[in-house]
């Protein structure tokens, strides 16, 4: 299946997302903030990135901006997973290059479907 980079500063959330994706047959890499995620994206060229939006050091929005500025990472699809559920947040994320915007809490099926959508 696909190689997915998961970026989240909450260990429990990181483990849950990894469990969902691993069970669906994906290989999972992890990062605990956007800066680490950016580095791992450049090193590993994942098929997709699942990122939280609000994190210390570098948040998901800033991570998206950095990824989209560099040719080697610009085409990696991004799935945002966040508690921010206002329409303006969703619109802004899509303008920054996010392919799928999931609002927490979401189900394993919703996440796996989002990954299938962006990697096919």
Notes on the structure:
By secondary structure, this protein is α/β, with parallel strands linked by helices. The chain has one domain: Response regulator (Rossmann fold), CATH 3.40.50. It contains five helices and five strands, in the order E-H-E-H-E-H-E-H-E-H. It has helices at 11-23, 34-44, 60-69, 87-95, 108-119, and strands at 3-7, 27-31, 48-52, 78-82, 98-103. A five-stranded parallel beta sheet has the order 2-1-3-4-5. Helix 4 links the parallel strand 4 and strand 5 (98-103). The model has no long low-confidence stretch (mean pLDDT 95).
Summarize this structure as a short list of keywords or feature phrases.
alpha/beta, Rossmann fold, five-stranded parallel β-sheet, 5 strands, 46% helix
